């Protein structure tokens, strides 16, 4: 009896081992010109995190680039002054990942990355409320010197609308000169060691100045769905490579930040992507019964070169902050502190925000925050107390004067 049982277990063991290899192995891709000479070569593994809508709300789907993925014949080496090289990868039930390349005299880069995912694939997107293909695009930080290969062992996250693609152990080269990977390579920022020449910061780390207040807006097919004036500051707690836990404060610099987002009937998303590999997203929802909008989710993905785990991620989808009636705006001059997780919080300065119903690209009637109302109550209370004290002194003076006159009456 033991032998048949062992025989039944062997296929299962082989499937488990295949699954482990599938999760860890990179996939090789190649694009050749009409003469059969390779012009693009790439070898990487990739993880996909996609948010999609169901009848019961938003859900996330996580999946990997399978070993059966292949470069399509529609991939191209490009033509001089006519088109740029492109690598088009197909996998699964109608999913494609496209890398479009461009170059100048010294460097080449991925000009655009495009991911088309098919919501009709029920294995990856069960119970999706809509069907068919969806497209997400972004400009990644994948670049290298001419005649050198791009090399990135660390995880490199590319954030797009509702999609995050994570490249792992990537080797990519376009504009090949001899039909094979170059021996020389350009390393990604994520692989570069943290600077050692900078003087150590005292503990705790110094807090930067208040961030610049900037105006952000998000528009969709029906016009503007979000207006926001605010300054943003991130508080991140993490463990350094020497196992020392530190809390650092980062300002979001609007001058170095790309602004994006999306509008739907049920949610509005503001996405901020900085040059320092920081992705910050604010998602607003609404309560139909109370006709109010509110900040319901904050998501952060950033790279910390001196951290023990360089990729820092945090999110919370159960927030109820920055609330106001639909059609009105929420305003707060006081600094607001929003805890997202134990290791991450956001300071928001001079916020003025309105989501969903935005008329004429102008803020609606203002609803003041509780902090501002409390700040107004303090001077009112102090003024009232002083007025009461003056009144008491005046009454006491009048009573004393009346008694003084009574002491001189004629008998």
UniProtKB/TrEMBL annotation:
Which keywords accompany this UniProt record? Answer: Cell membrane, Disulfide bond, Endosome, Glycoprotein, Lysosome, Membrane, Signal, Transmembrane, Transmembrane helix
**Record localization:** Cell membrane; Cytolytic granule membrane; Late endosome membrane; Lysosome membrane
Give TM regions.
376-399
Q: Give the InterPro entries listed for this entry.
A: Lamp2-like_luminal, Lamp2-like_TM, LAMP_CS, Lysosome-assoc_membr_glycop
Q: Tell me where the signal peptide lies.
A: 1-26
Domain Lysosome-associated membrane glycoprotein 2-like luminal as annotated: residue spans: 29-175, 211-359
Q: What is its main location?
A: membrane
Q: What positions does the domain Lysosome-associated membrane glycoprotein 2-like transmembrane occupy?
A: 378-409
Q: Classify the protein's membrane topology as the record does.
A: Single-pass type I membrane protein
GO annotation, cellular component aspect: cytolytic granule membrane; late endosome membrane; plasma membrane
Q: Quick check: keyword Membrane in the entry?
A: yes
Pro residues bias spans: 196-209
What are the disulphide bonds in this sequence?
A: 152-188, 225-263, 332-369
Q: Name one GO biological process term.
A: establishment of protein localization to organelle
Q: Does the keyword Transmembrane apply?
A: yes
Region entry Disordered, spans: 184-212
Subunit note:
Interacts with ABCB9; this interaction strongly stabilizes ABCB9 and protects ABCB9 against lysosomal degradation. Interacts with FURIN. Interacts with TMEM175; inhibiting the proton channel activity of TMEM175.
Q: Which family is this sequence assigned to?
A: Belongs to the LAMP family.
- The protein's name in its UniProt record: Lysosome-associated membrane glycoprotein 1
State the organism of origin.
Myotis lucifugus
The UniProt gene name for this protein comes to LAMP1
């Amino acid at each position: 009896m033991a032998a048949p049982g062992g025989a039944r277990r062997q296929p299962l063991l082989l499937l488990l081992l295949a699954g482990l290899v599938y999760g860890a192995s990179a996939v090789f891709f190649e694009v050749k010109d009409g003469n059969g000479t390779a012009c693009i070569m790439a070898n990487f593994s990739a993880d996909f995190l996609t948010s999609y809508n169901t009848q019961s709300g938003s859900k996330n789907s996580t999946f990997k680039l399978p070993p059966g993925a292949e470069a399509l014949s529609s991939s191209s080496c490009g033509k001089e002054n006519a088109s740029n090289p492109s690598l088009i990868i197909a996998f699964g039930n109608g999913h494609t990942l496209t890398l479009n390349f461009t170059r100048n005299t010294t460097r080449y880069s991925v000009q655009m990355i495009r991911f088309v995912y098919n919501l009709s694939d029920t294995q990856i997107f069960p119970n999706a409320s809509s069907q068919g293909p969806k497209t997400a695009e972004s400009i990644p930080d994948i670049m290298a010197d001419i005649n050198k290969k791009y090399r990135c062992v660390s995880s490199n996250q590319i954030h797009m609308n509702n999609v995050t693609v994570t490249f792992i152990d990537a080797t990519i080269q376009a504009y090949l000169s001899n039909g094979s990977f170059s021996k020389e390579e350009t390393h990604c920022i994520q692989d570069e060691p943290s600077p050692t020449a900078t003087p150590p910061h005292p503990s705790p780390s110094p807090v930067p100045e208040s961030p610049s207040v900037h105006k952000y807006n998000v528009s969709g097919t029906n016009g503007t769905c979000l207006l926001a004036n605010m300054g943003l500051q991130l508080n991140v707690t993490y463990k350094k490579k020497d196992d020392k836990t530190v809390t650092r404060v980062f300002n979001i610099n609007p001058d170095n930040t790309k602004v994006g987002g999306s509008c739907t009937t049920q949610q509005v998303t503001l996405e901020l992507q900085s040059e320092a590999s920081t992705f910050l997203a604010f998602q607003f929802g609404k309560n139909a019964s109370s006709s109010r909008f509110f900040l319901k989710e904050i998501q952060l993905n950033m790279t910390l070169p001196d951290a023990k785990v360089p990729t820092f991620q945090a999110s919370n989808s159960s927030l109820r902050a920055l609330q106001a009636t639909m059609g009105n705006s929420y305003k707060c001059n006081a600094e607001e502190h929003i805890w997202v997780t134990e290791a991450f919080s956001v300071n928001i300065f001079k916020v003025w925000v309105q989501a969903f119903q935005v008329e004429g690209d102008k803020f609606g009637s203002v609803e003041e925050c509780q902090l501002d109302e409390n700040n107004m109550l303090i001077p009112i209370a102090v003024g009232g107390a002083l007025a009461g004290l003056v009144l008491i002194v005046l009454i006491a003076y009048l009573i004393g004067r009346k008694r003084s006159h009574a002491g001189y009456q004629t008998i």
